[in-house]
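[Meeting: bench + compute handoff]

Bench side (C.D.) handed over the final construct sequence. Compute side (W.E.) agreed to return the predicted structure before the next meeting so the bench team could plan truncations. Sequence as handed over:
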Amino acid sequence: PGAVPGSGPRPAAVPVAADLIVLARTSVDTPLGPFTIVAGDRGVVATAFGDELEDDLRRESREAPRGLAAARREVEAYFAGRLRTFETPVDLSGIGGGFPRRVLELVRTIPYGELWTYGDVAAAAGAARGGRAAGSALARCPIELFVPCHRVVRADRSLGSYGRHDDRRRFLLALEGALPGLPAAREMVGP
C-alpha cells in the first residue's frame, strides 16, 4: 500500500521555555507626559515616562491597551487625585531576591502622602545601617508609581536626587500633599 500524504511523522513542536513571558505595554497620558506600563503574566515589570523605556523592553513587548486597562485606569485616577493605593500587581522577580527586593516590596506599602527616609526603609527591611543600600535599590527600580520610590527621602527630610527627574518627584509629592509649602501639582504643570 502506498503512503498516505501527511501520515508520516510530524515535526516536533518548537520548544518554548517554561519561563517565557509575553510582555504587553500601553501608554497613558499624564500631566508629566506619556507614561508607559509594561507587564507580564504576573504583573507590571517596568514603567517609564516619555521615551525613557529601555529599547529591549520596547522590542520585547507589544502594544496591548485592553490587557492593561485596569493599570491605565489606576494611573489616570492617581493623577486625577482619586487613587491613593495601586492595586495592580507588580512583578519584582526580575529584581532577584534579598535586600533590594525587600526594599521595593516595603516601599510599595508606604502610604500616599507619607515620606520615609532611606534609613527608615533600610531598618524596616532588616538592615538598620543600610540606608545607602536602600537608596541604591530604589535608584535601580524599574517601576515608578506602582512602587512609589518618590516617597523616600534623605535623613534630613530633603528630597535628594531622583535620577535626573527632581521636578517629577516634586510634582508627585505635591500631588500627594506630602510637601507643605510647595504649590499644588496642577500649578506646577501650567496650562
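W.E. noted at the follow-up: The chain has seven helices and six strands. C.D. will use this when planning the next construct.
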